[in-house]
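Batch manifest, entry 17 of 40.
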Amino acid sequence: DQSSHWIFFNLKNVADEGTVAFCGDFASRDFADYALIVLNQEEIMDKLDVWLESKTLGISSACFATTHNVIKGDNVLGFRITSGSNAMSLTHVLWTPGVQ
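Output type: structure tokens
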């Protein structure tokens, strides 16, 4: 729903004790200043580990991962911008797949 400023990703078949990650271009690592990031309806901004970070020519690309609140099976990852002066551009959403 564009008017709510939320975007959700349904992550199917996540492994038991799996990892959920996302990559993109972010204004800052201080997500709490401008965004909400939730996994299965729980905020995870302070539970993210940096996987990779690259800052060149005005672009700050990074990947962040967490195992916090990851459940076996289907998971929902959500993002909401709370400050109009900042934005984020997601490029990848990744997760550890379960065995089928």
